[in-house]
Specification:
The chain is an all-alpha fold. It folds into two domains: 1-53, Arc Repressor Mutant, subunit A, CATH 1.10.10; 56-191. It is built from nine helices and no strands. The chain is elongated. The relative contact order is 0.09.
Length: 192
């Protein structure tokens, strides 16, 4: 994708992206073609390919955009407490509910996980101090595994919630997770 910030290029990118998202409401993603996007958006083929290489590139760019907003929220959080992180994750999902449902319906939710697996370790290095007590006893390689574990756990919770139509209240899910982690830590202490 071409990262130009010219206003007409931004308008074209937005029109192409919005058209793809609109088409995904009516058609399975794999059936949507660039030609169909061009006809619906009234954008010239040359303009499309100046900004994107494929419809997958359009979708990827949109995911990047919403994940950028998610990252900004994480960077501005008042503390690294799990309850705060969960609040941000649930808020992100609520704000992007329709898009998450489109990805779910097209079996494309894994695209977000793939990007999170690359993005979260970078973000962790930016916002978590190396002397943060939780990570102090671990090497950087061990921390990478811990981050992968946390991303996978959080993502599977979100996946279950999205697949269920996001009907449950986030606060209830958060309470369950925190209660389980508290119970687990007591259980582990009893085992040692």
């Amino acid at each position: 994708m071409n990262p130009t910030q010219h206003p007409s290029a931004i308008r074209s990118k937005n029109e192409i992206t919005n058209t793809l998202l609109h088409l995904m409401k009516s058609f399975p993603y794999h059936e949507i073609t660039v030609k169909q996007i061009l006809m619906e958006s009234h954008v010239a083929r040359k303009t499309f390919y100046r900004n994107f290489s494929s419809k997958d590139d359009v979708l990827s760019a949109h995911i990047d955009t919403i994940l950028y907003q998610y990252v900004q929220s994480l960077q501005q959080m008042p503390s690294c407490r799990l309850s705060v992180v969960l609040d941000i994750i649930f808020e992100f999902c609520i704000q992007n509910q329709e898009f998450l449902f489109q990805l779910r319906d097209n079996e494309l939710l894994h695209l977000i996980l793939n990007k999170l697996n690359r993005l979260i370790p970078l973000l962790h290095n930016q916002i978590v101090s190396p002397d943060y007590p939780l990570f102090q006893p671990f090497t950087s390689e061990q921390t990478e595994y811990i981050i992968a574990f946390n991303v996978g756990a959080a993502w599977n919770i979100i996946l279950k919630w999205v697949e269920g139509g996001m009907r449950e209240m986030p606060e209830s899910i958060k309470r369950t997770i925190l209660q389980y982690l508290n119970h687990m830590s007591h259980f582990i202490e009893m085992q040692i």
